Amino acid sequence: xxxxxxxxxxxxxxxxxxxxxxxxxxxxxxxxxxxxxxxxxxxxxxxxxxxxxxxxxxxxxxxxxxxxxxxxxxxxxxxxxxxxxxxxxxxxxxxxxxxxxxxxxxxxxxxxxxxxxxxxxxxxxxxxxxxxxxxxxxxxxxxxxxxxxxx
Length: 151
Known about the structure:
Elements: H1 13-32, H2 42-58, E1 67-70, E2 73-77, E3 88-91, E4 99-103, E5 109-111, E6 118-120, E7 124-132, E8 141-150
Parallel strand pairs: 2-8
Antiparallel strand pairs: 1-3, 4-7, 5-6, 7-8
């Protein structure tokens, strides 16, 4: 593997060095692979090493600011009919990514993906989830609440 086929890390001189030695390690496995029937036995160990590195780096990524539903559960009435506001969702500092709502039981209650408004359909319970995708160096975050629908 040639070094230029790996993306720059953007962490200064140490990043350049890490990219170079990673490319060299992969090249060594590629060059010696034919002697082992096409798969170098150290490839499994190297993959485990890279997965451990990914885990360690992922731990350094911040989770988007907290999300809190108030209240954490809400009752909706079928008699009210149309969409009703969901509980308020407070988002913490830095939690500015796109927000999407989903209903775990859309046959009981649907939820507007953009606004969180709930439409009760039949008596029962559904878990409503608000999700923010990973963005701007933040990991994704989710928060749920219980929507209970009564007749």
